[in-house]
Amino acid sequence: MANPMFDALFAPLAGRGGPLLMLADGRQIAGQALLATIAQQAHALASLGVQPGDRVAVQVAKSPAALATYGACVAIGAVYLPLNTAYTAGEIGYFLSDATPRVFVCDPATAAPEGLQVLTMDAAGAGSLADLAAGMPQVIDAVARGENDLAALLYTSGTTGRSKGAMLSQRNLLSNAAVLVDHWRFTPDDVLLHALPIFHTHGLFVATNVALLSGAQMIFLPGFNAAEVMRLLPQATVMMGVPTFYTRLLDQPGLAQAARGRRLFISGSAPLLAETHRAWEAATGHRILERYGMTETNMNTSNPYVGERRAGTVGQPLPGVALRIAGEGEVGVIEVRGPNVFQGYWQMPEKTAEELGPDGWFITGDLGRMVDGYVEIVGRAKDLVITGGYNVYPKEIELALDALPGVAESAVIGVPHADMGEAVFAVIVGDVTAEACLAAIAPGLARFKQPKAAVVVADLPRNAMGKVQKAVLRELYKGWFLARENS
Ligand code: AMP
Prior knowledge:
The chain starts with a helix and ends with a helix. The protein has two domains: 4-371, Rossmann fold (3-Layer(aba) Sandwich); 385-486, 2-Layer Sandwich (GMP Synthetase, Chain A, domain 3). The strands form six sheets. The protein has a nine-stranded mixed beta sheet with strand order 2-1-10-9-11-12-13-14-15. A four-stranded parallel beta sheet has the order 4-3-5-6, covered by helices on one side. It is α/β, with parallel strands linked by helices. 31% of the residues lie in helices and 25% in strands. The chain is built from 16 helices and 24 strands. The longest helix is centred in the N-terminal third of the chain and has 17 residues, at 31-47. The structure holds adenosine monophosphate. The site of adenosine monophosphate (AMP) has 18 residues, from strand 13, strand 18 and strand 19.
């Protein structure tokens, strides 16, 4: 019986006696061996009563065994629910009570809530899941599933309000993987350097599904370590990364040599500065291919494989994905429609109705502009600063600041201001003074756009995917003007 995702991604491993995963310590895992582990874990989960449609929540370190758990869930029709390893017990409690999984797989050191079936898996893949799986058959007949059946539930990072569970069907994931394999020309000859976490759409679906579907191999690293990546890069054909991977690698000696002969470098999940794009090209001769997507939609746009990869843009809509921007030619909210767009938010029909129309258009919440067919991301709609009734797009101010000598990067936010409602506020990283930066950008910006104040800091707060956490900055500086007025 058919199970489209299992049939496309995992069943073909049966014929792969050669390496699928290459690990940092030199060990290699054959496709067949991973499939055997998948089968054993699938039987183990089924033996605990996991039925098709049940959620299996997983909060474990990245390892081949952890990847097998994803395959095992697909095999038995369970909904795979990966959780960020950085989440605290309190946060996990919310996800588990919201998603009511049949089983929770976690590190042995995790204090799992009472009343839940728990299996453990440590960073080496050992634990009670492996113990239970060890006695199970190494082959499995995958449970029949339809294209519209749920394959995964991924919680969004939830920068405002409650984190929402995005329901992704087999078709959502498979259609996007097929488009990306084709668009980025993946073949069985590829070796993907995989240093991304597998609890997030980027490392889990963009990277892993594309590699599995194309028959590529993966250099499968537990996380990003610049020296390790430099050592292993010469064995890869493609690297996928978040912008921080690229900025960190630019500081490494020997980069030009390590990058020589690679086929492709892809970036996404957060904005890649045009300056980083240019610096990478100057250092390696490669133009990074930037793409744009999100948990709810998988990938929506990509720069071309052949043709101009335009710095500061996320490229064109992918084949089969329709994209529109309210107010063509101007900045507006990006909406997308296609087989990649999710099925809605888990148990949140009202939230779903607000963002996903009956006609299939999903309101992404990202602000963008289309220039010559290329999409530029301007920021998140909720990042927009409204100061004295005027709209200010933080990205415009950030670009002006980033262009100043000595500025490494910047983040612009709105903070409460008694007179203006919100005031534009800049947080700058670099060997500069706040006053000099403000004076330098003032001549090029309308008065209302000029930051009312700025601070210079050592680092911007970022999450695991390299995204600047503006909510943290807003919280940190929310009293800036109010405190001054009262003093
Ligand atoms: P997540 O759901 O965690 O994958 O976050 C998705 C969000 O990341 C999108 O809605 C965008 O705001 C942002 N994002 C992803 N890729 C890019 C990119 N290439 N440039 C700018 N922002 C991006």
